[in-house]
Amino acid sequence: MRRFRPCLSLAVTVLITAMLLLLAACQGEGADQPRAEAVSPDREAMTYYGRMILVDHRGPKAQIHLQSRDAPLWFSQVRDAVAFTLSPEEPSDIAAIYVTDMARADGWDHPQHWIAAQDATYVIDSDRRGGMGALEAVPFSKRDAAEAFVTEHGGEVMSWADIPEEYIFERSIEAVESPRMMQHDH
């Protein structure tokens, strides 16, 4: 006949309850924290790749907010921000990504309105080049604006998640190395 040990049973119950509370607290960590807000760049904003003054570059831009940093990382091309997220060497503690909304931009030169990257519709393979002359993923808050852009500049409409890795890494490098790169909108 087995003897019941109330003290041991109580200790196990307390231990399991404490572990469940700790697990719930860890899973909820950060859930109450608001998402990082988009920031307007100034002349002090330097690009993550190349350390250049962001506002000196034309075309769509991006900013990535990391949990481990107070200031955003700046990108003179949306394509570079996509590359950052795909690169295993780069930090992965991404809190938010914003891109300039070309649907609300007054032109190609200096777009000022920001939207969450995952909410945008993108055009790839257009005849427009990003701030450094490479192929660009041009972001729009409205799909119809992206489709109108395709009518004028060519390309293909897609979401952030659907932008092909080979477009970012392989085809962009080929485009920069081609003679046509000298014709970019810089």
TrEMBL record:
- Please provide the record's keywords in A-Z order: Lipoprotein, Signal
- PROSITE patterns hit by this protein: PROKAR_LIPOPROTEIN
The record's annotation in Pfam families points to: NosL
- Give the source's domain of life in one word: Bacteria
The secretion signal range is 1-24
**Tagged with keyword Signal:** yes
UniProt keyword Transmembrane, yes or no: no
Designated name of the protein? Dissimilatory nitrous oxide reduction protein lipoprotein
What lineage does the source organism belong to?
Bacteria, Pseudomonadati, Pseudomonadota, Gammaproteobacteria, Salinisphaerales
